[in-house]
Amino acid sequence: MKNIIVILIALLFCSGIFKEKFFETPQDWPQPFYDFKKNPLKKEKILLGRVLFYDNALSQNNSISCASCHSPYSAFTHIDHALSHGIFDRIGTRNSPALMNLAWQKAFMWDGSVNHLDMQALAPITHTAEMNFSMDSLVLRLQSNSTYNFLFQQAYGDPSVTGERILKSLSQFMLTLVSSNAKYDEVKRGKTTFTDQELNGYRLFKENCNSCHTEPLFTNGSFANNGLGIDETLNDFGKMKLSGKKEDSLHFKIPTLRNIEYSHPYMHDGRFKKLSEVINHYTSQIRQGNSLSYELRNKIALSANEKVDLIAFLLTLSDKKFVFNPAFQPPKKINTSPKDLK
Ligand code: HEC
Ligand code: HEC
User: Fold this and answer.
1) Position with higher pLDDT, 194 vs 242
2) 135: left (phi > 0), else alpha (psi -120 to 50), else beta?
3) What are the contacts of 161-168 at 24+ separation with CB within 8 A?
4) Average pLDDT over residues 254-264
């Protein structure tokens, strides 16, 4: 059985999936922030990261994978509930962010508590409401699994499993998740045009939203208070918890709006299910307060038609090629079931 798995993996290597470049900076985008020199992409490392990303073995009782909360079909978030669900049905305190264009991000998590992509995976692996495991136990588990012996050998030249290799391989896979083929991008490349409605939505977007959700990444990478009222059960004050500064109260990371059609529910606590609710928030529910971001202090007034136009523009950020990219899907032929593991 194990031999068959190894042969199937070898076939996957030869199948040409990785013939295209693994990473390219799209035209007119800024240079990525991630330092690729410290973790140069290699197809075998990307594959290892992809296998790890989809493997339940990363959780204590083999029940939860990264993809449980970051599913490719929803632009790598979960869509069936507002707050994340982890091991033993434990419920977290935040909505899982969609994952894409991570190479351009300087800070991770809604409050920026993780400052390097290579460190990110440690948080869910060890979190008691997510995977409830430890890096040491994970290393031992993978070390005694022949599929992983093979994959680490291919990726690193020897089969030994280390925490650093696990983290860097997961980064490799996540770095390849670049979304830059939405209708918006095609319009920018002169390959198609916006409808009148989308064009009007784009104008409204540039007037009201672009200062924070800045093109082409649709985030300026900073933090803001966008006027949401506090949820009194969660009492999540965002960045202030880390910085201790009052002016950071209710400041959360400005999320990208790419693939927003697929990544509902919205906001750090998943409080809005629909884009129309988000737009109504910005036009009529902004909570004034000392830490409210400057850009939102003046009322945004939009007519019913303008709201529809703005949403029409946001839908041009949907990138089907990204969501259905076969290179990002679960590696079908590789199965590390618990019985392979000791
Ligand atoms: C139980 C659900 C759950 C699991 C399992 C999970 N995540 Fe997450 N992930 C989240 C939540 C929730 C956040 C936001 C947490 C916060 O802001 O405090 C997050 C944040 C992230 C981010 C930061 C994204 C950003 O834009 O800031 C990355 C990257 C990430 N997860 C990758 C992973 C990887 C890799 C794994 C597997 C090792 C994983 N996640 C497992 C729920 C999960
Ligand atoms: C002051 C900066 C700022 C401005 C201006 C702004 N936003 Fe946001 N936006 C944010 C922040 C911060 C969040 C995340 C807030 C949270 O979860 O607590 C967010 C979240 C969102 C989300 C949810 C994304 C997700 O993945 O959950 C959408 C959709 C959105 N904004 C659309 C818009 C639109 C449309 C406009 C213009 C009408 C706009 N924003 C203007 C800062 C801003």
Assistant:
1) 194
2) alpha
3) 163/135, 163/136, 163/138, 163/139, 166/52, 166/121, 166/135, 166/138, 166/139, 166/142, 167/118, 167/119, 167/120, 167/121, 167/122, 168/39, 168/45, 168/118
4) 97
Within 10 A of 221 (CB to CB), how many other CB atoms are there? Answer: 17
Q: For the chain, what percent of residues have pLDDT higher than 90?
A: 83
What pLDDT score does 8 carry? 59
For a mutational test of ligand 2's pocket, the pick from 209, 297, 311, i.e. the residue with the most ligand atoms closer than 8 A to its C-beta, is 209
Looking at residue 232, its pLDDT comes to 87
- Ligand 1, atom 13: nearest CA belongs to which residue? 96
List, for residues 153-182, the tens digit of each pLDDT value: 999 999 999 999 999 999 999 999 999 999
Nearest protein Cα to ligand 1, atom 35: 121
68 lines ligand 1 (CB under 6 A): yes
In single-letter form, the type of residue at position 160 comes to S
Residue ranges lining ligand 2, Cβ < 6 Å? 98, 208-209, 211-213, 224, 226, 228, 252, 254-255, 257, 260, 263, 266-268, 278, 282, 293, 295-296, 300, 310
Query: How far, in Å, from the CA of 124 to the mean position of ligand 1?
Result: 6
Instruction: Locate 35 and state its tokens.
Output: 């330092």
End-to-end CA distance of the chain: 16
